[in-house]
User: Fold this.
Amino acid sequence: MTLSPARPIPFSVVAKPTGAACNLDCQYCFFLSKELLYDQKRQSMSEETLETYVKNFLAASPDGDVTMLWQGGEPTLRGLPFFERLIELCEKYRRPAQVVHHAVQTNGTLITGQWARFFKDNDVLVGISIDGPKELHDAYRLNRGGHGTHSMVIRGWEQLRNAEVDTNILCTVHAANEDHGLEVYRYFRDELGAQYMQFIPIVERVPREHLRQAELGWRSGSSALLYRQDGDCVTSRSTTPSSYGRFLSDIFDEWIVRDVGQVFVQDFDSSLSALFGSASVCVHAPSCGANMAMEFNGDVYACDHWVEPEWLVGNIDSQDFATLATSEKMRAFDTKKQDLDDECWSCPFLRLCWGGCPKDRFIAQDNGSDHNYLCEGYKTFYAHALPALHAMAFLISRGRSAQEIMNPLVAQSLGVHIPPKEEHRAH
Assistant:
């Protein structure tokens, strides 16, 4: 394989060193079903594929900071020596002007002191999947024996905190925790000491004829049903649009009173960035088609949410990322994002949302187009938060700190009511 000359290509890759393999059996995790894509019992990235990937990825990436993303399944199942080899290969293949960073998304249950020291020594950003306090987390995040995993995750979280590893929390929003936004947020902030959070809505989309089977979960052994972005029904575990909007709004009300500049919530940061014409997350960007996913064997798919045969772009053994990122299939995938219906084009929140992720557009409209399932929730949150976000944007544009919005007098002068901390806490 001949690598293209280094040039700044806007792309990212979520790499899966263990494919969809995971030591847990989270009931809503449709990624578990992706094991069915390959007739191979042990789906584990070889060191040869790892080296090809590192060489290929760094050759196609620009100078400066470069981030490699590692996910699953559960990536730590691949073992610490694999990641130690990764660091060696990055040093071997990076150009002198490249600084390589790594981010790992993990369920946290296998994190030991040795893992934590490795992450700290190599400046790895570790995202931990936690869905809130024990009773909310354990509703769906189970081990293979059907037991809750909260205590195991918290043990891993504490190892990371003790080693002073850079961390963030990924919390999914689903039927069990959607009505407890403030409780979840305060638990992360006050009990876990988290400063960085993101809240991802669970939308398990399925055709009606597969709904009963999907309700059993997605591990291939129990359902043998490959998850696809198909159908117009959702499982009972999925969040509802209205609850999702309230979940974000309730957290925003707490955050805007006391945590601006101290706690960073991806949903709020991306909304504020959008007011300056910048998209910080692909879900709410005007276009996608540059965020690929790579399976354990080097197969590259158009998106982590579209790991399906129809969206297999190629394999790194025969194609470089410059070719893959600019391929006809990736250009075709980008049109999914751009295909907005009339309601979107006339929406006052269009430039904050851009129709949301195409995977969630399955509500049929009279004109034959599909609307985003989460639209009502987006509108609820944006209508609620936008006055304060506009005020923050005004402060920033004047060279002032966005934290000033927490001062009720400043907020009032900008036409925004921010209740005093004591009043909000009592409420």
Q: What stands out?
A: The first helix runs from residue 47 to 60. The CA atoms of residues 24 and 143 lie 4 Å apart. The radius of gyration is 22 Å. Residues 1-8 have pLDDT under 50 and may be disordered.
